[in-house]
Amino acid sequence: MTQTRRIPGTAIAAHAVLITYTIIALFPVFVILINSFKTRRAIFRDPLGLPTEETFSLIGYQTVFKQGDFFLYFQNSMIVTVVSLTLILLFGAMAAFALAEYRFKGNTPMGLYLALGIMIPIRIGTVAILEMMVSTGLVNTLVALILVYTAQGLPLAVFILSEFMKGVSDDLKNAGRIDGLSEYKIFFRLVLPLVRPAMATVAVFNMIPIWNDLWFPLILAPAEEVKTLTLGSQVFIGQFVTDWNAVLSALSMAILPVMVLYVIFSRQLIRGITSGAVK
Amino acid sequence: MAAPSKQKNRWHIAVFLAPAVLVYTAVMIYPLFNTLRLSLYSEIDQERIWVGLQNFRTLFGDAIWSEQFWNALANNGWFFVIHMLVQNPIGVALAAILSSPRLRFSAFYRSAIFIPTILSFVIVGFAWKLILSPIWGIAPGMLDAIGLKFLYQPWLGKEEYALTTLSLVSVWQYVGIPMMLIYAALLSIPDEILEAGECDGITGMAAFWKIKLPLILPSIGIISVLTFVANFNAFDLIYAAQGALAGPDFSTDILGTFMYRTFFGFQLQLGDPHMGSTIASAMFGIILIGVCIYLFGIQRRLRNYQF
User: Fold this and answer.
1) Can you tell me the ipTM of this complex?
2) Any bridge partners for residue B41, and if so which?
3) Which residue pairs from B6-9 have beta carbons closer than 8 angstroms and sit at least 24 positions apart in sequence?
């Protein structure tokens, strides 16, 4: 109704605002990327120009590959992120199923207890976490990071997944019970496949904060062989602060994996947020 | 028949709950309370002894400590104010434009504007540091191009601008989140309500202010409390851009960096886990107060409309 009467001027204004903001959002990323492919001279003389045949150079990337162990950092980040996500999803779904499916004494208090962590950041407990990791010998291992991220991700995972599991039809589960399936089989074979979209949402929500975290790698696992990509690039850039080629290349290399993940999962992420999963 | 056998064998509930509850309790809840407990101790001659509230007295009473603490708290407050005044209104405005019907390329805009949010603070901090740097000259060069070069200052290096600049960088990064949440809330408003308003002659901007805005207030409430918790627990951006000393002259020091320095030590300062715990406890208190104000003061007054 309104659309037919709408003045095109409003649409143009809307696009103008959105394009302006899109440029503001993308400009820094763009500047970093194009300059990482230029010679040092060109970086300073013409920071906004695209690399041309004359100014094209990969010297920064060569330094990064020679000096920093980015492949190792990437591998560490990958292990931490994938294992944490798996544990969050598995443990979170199991607990969510228990809370959504069974009526038992202490169901509500248990739900509230697990929900506590949604609002309270785990960082507050850092001092005691470090002490615990030191006394158990887990400091400077990827296990320490995995445990922390799993604990951090569980509250929201349980909350979102139990909301979804309440929606799985009782008839289906009862039919399974009549056929003699154990409660475990009902969970793994019937319920889990049905809540897969919700699991994807939880995974995408947790993935980016875990990948990007600087605090816990800095405190729990700063050793060279267990550095994550985020910490590794932070340290690398700190050391090479005057070598602009290397810094820009390191930044671009740190941007790349997140961008790839974003391109793959952006639809899932946006659908997850807009479906109101975080109400 | 089924009931008694079900009553007997309910171990599976415990099995389902155990892993999550164990990890969560051991790595999150127990350390949290242990940190609160540690704030009541101190180390003297390498022995941990109970000192009661002495650490808090030092933090608030001792001139050196309290000055740093109030500085960090005030900076953190300003950090939060800028997010509330800049990030959330821009987020709401972008969402309102994006949700207008028949807008072309809206999926593209949405994805593009969300990109900064997925980048790590390390990338964001350094990228902006380079762009604003007087050595590289992108910022002064661009201001020069529009004839405003006199406005340029080395913003991150000046005490009076550094914190505001970093807050705005953080806003730049996180605008995507309020935008998405508000966008979702706007889409869930049923057409009938808007059409009913239209029959009464409420369209365009008036429809936004009079119909949509009141309906998305609960979402704005949630975003505010999420912003509050995230801001009072922030660390990474300041650390990546200004280092642990939160320069120039502690003008960008916030509670997170203050706690890191105290607990971990930095340069000449030795690490002190007990004072670190004390600051963590203070942060816990502040976050708790914020969340409670939201839960009991704000959320109850906002009616949730169920469509």
Assistant:
1) 0.86
2) B50
3) none
State the best of A86, A105, A127 to mutate against chain B, taking most chain B CBs within 10 Å.
Answer: A127
Cβ of B131 and A28 within 8 Å? yes
Per-residue pLDDT of A164-190, as tens digits, reads 888 888 898 999 999 999 999 999 999
**Cis peptide bond upstream of B248, omega within 30:** yes
Taking the C-alpha atoms of residue B157 and residue B304, their distance in angstroms, rounded to an integer, is 45
Contact residues on chain B for A257, CB-CB shorter than 8 A: none
The model's pTM is 0.88
Could you tell me if A71 and A61 are in contact, meaning their C-beta atoms sit under 8 angstroms apart? no
Please state, as a whole number, how many other Cβ atoms lie within 10 Å of the Cβ of residue A112: 9
User: Shortest CB distance from B126 goes to which of A17, A110, A237?
Assistant: A237
Q: Which domains does chain A have, with CATH numbers?
A: 1-57 (no CATH), 67-274 (1.10.3720.10)
Mean per-residue pLDDT, A217-242:
89
A residues 119-148 near B, CB within 8 Å? 119-132, 147-148
- What pairs with residue B43 in β-bridges? B48
The region that residue B250 occupies, defined by phi over 0 for left and psi between -120 and 50 for alpha, beta otherwise, is: left
A214 CB neighbours in chain B (<8 A) are: 120-122, 235-236, 239-240
Contact of B287 with chain A, judged by CB distance below 8 Å, is answered with yes
